[in-house]
Design goal:
Number of domains: 4
CATH architecture of the largest domain: Alpha-Beta Complex
Largest sheet: 5 strands, mixed
Helix content: 40-55%
CATH topology of the largest domain: Conserved hypothetical protein from pyrococcus furiosus pfu- 392566-001, ParB domain
Order of helices and strands: HHEEHEEHEHHHHHHHHEEEH
Strand order of the largest sheet: 1-5-3-4-2
Distance between the termini: 155 Å
Number of helices: 13
Number of strands: 8
Structural class: alpha/beta
Strand content: 5-15%
């Protein structure tokens, strides 16, 4: 009996503390798999607050609308302007970088509105609709005020070349009034930019509609163009002629785009507006007794200077931006006034 009990104790002892035949390696010296190490490091950074984990979602782009203040004109997007992104989506069959959105509560037709990611939205929608690809829109949802949304969109898109200066200028003009009480300095501080830099974009946004349309495609209108035009519009003598020329150019550009022809390039537009302003300068400096005669667009065609009671000296402006028909019409009109009895 005693021997049996001793045998059982021996077996039990073996189960509880099996004999060790070699010294185990300390746990800290056991190499961990590289992926596990990386994951543990990432978790530690999240726990410490160094990194915030984000939840991404794949959604139907039709359930997302553009934010009303999005700084990209969605209607200008097309296969050409989105060609690089479309090709990337085709190759990977997925969206690499998420769009930034916020939740919509005022319209049952939409779940989100896009703060950053209009080109991605257009491209994914195009591939789904036109090419019938099984691809969804990758988004990151955030809780943002309008001012926060504006600054986020500006920070993401400020360096992008595919957003025109004029699109950005319109966004800034709205924001300075809506979020910063019309104080450009306050807005510049929030955006961390120089006030002078911001002011140039605000000037661009203030250009009259006819001047903007004189460039045909607003994407061709740059901040530097506004700097050239601003002094022309500020001069009371120049402004009427500059505006008349801008209106003429706007109509010409509209006809060119409607017919599929090439539009006048920005450098030429600036040259024509400057020339119109120069004509006003010549008129302002005309000697006493000399009358400048212009066409409907404001271009000076010739001057009339009386020599006594029976003579008038006519001096043609041969480089005037006008047709011969303009000259003939103006001359006939002036001649009728000078010799009413024929």
């Amino acid at each position: 009996m005693a021997s049996t009990t001793g045998k059982n104790r021996s077996i039990l002892a073996g189960l509880v503390a099996p004999p060790v035949t070699e010294t185990p390696t300390p746990a800290r010296d056991v190499p961990q798999p590289e992926r596990l190490n990386t994951r543990m490091t990432s978790l530690a950074r999240v726990t410490s607050g160094d990194v915030k984990e984000k939840t991404l979602q794949l959604v139907d782009p039709a359930r997302c609308r553009m934010w009303a203040r999005h700084n990209r004109r969605y209607e200008l997007l097309n296969e050409v302007s989105c060609a690089d992104l479309i090709e990337s989506l085709r190759a990977q069959n997925e969206q690499e970088f998420p769009a930034i959105v916020r939740r919509v509560t005022d319209d049952p037709s939409f779940d989100f509105e896009v703060i950053c990611g209009a080109r991605r939205h257009w491209s994914v929608s195009y591939l789904r609709t036109v090419e019938h690809r099984e691809i969804r829109y990758l988004i990151e949802e955030r809780d943002l005020t309008d001012e926060q949304a504006f600054r986020l969109a500006d920070a993401e898109n400020r360096a992008r070349q595919d957003i025109s200066d004029y699109e950005r200028a319109l966004d800034y003009r709205y924001a300075v009034e809506a979020f910063y009480g019309g104080v450009a300095q306050r807005m510049a501080e929030r955006l961390d930019v120089q006030k002078a830099w911001l002011s140039r974009f605000l000037d661009l946004a203030k250009l009259p509609t006819d001047v903007v349309q004189a460039f045909g495609d607003v994407r061709q209108l740059r901040e530097r163009h506004a700097r050239s035009i601003k002094p022309l519009l500020a001069d009371t003598a120049m402004r009427p002629r500059v505006m008349a020329e801008a209106k003429r150019l706007a109509a010409q550009q509209a006809d060119a785009m409607a017919s599929g022809q090439g539009i006048i390039d920005p450098a030429k537009v600036i040259s024509l507006l400057t020339h119109a302003a120069a004509a006003a300068t010549k008129t302002k400096a005309a000697p006493k007794g000399v009358a400048p005669i212009a066409n409907a667009a404001g271009a000076t065609l010739f001057t009339l200077a009386r020599k006594g009671s029976k003579k008038v000296v006519l001096e043609l402006v041969l480089d005037a931006d006008a047709s011969n028909a303009d000259f003939n019409e103006a001359f006939a009109r002036e001649l009728t006034q000078l010799r009413p009895k024929g």
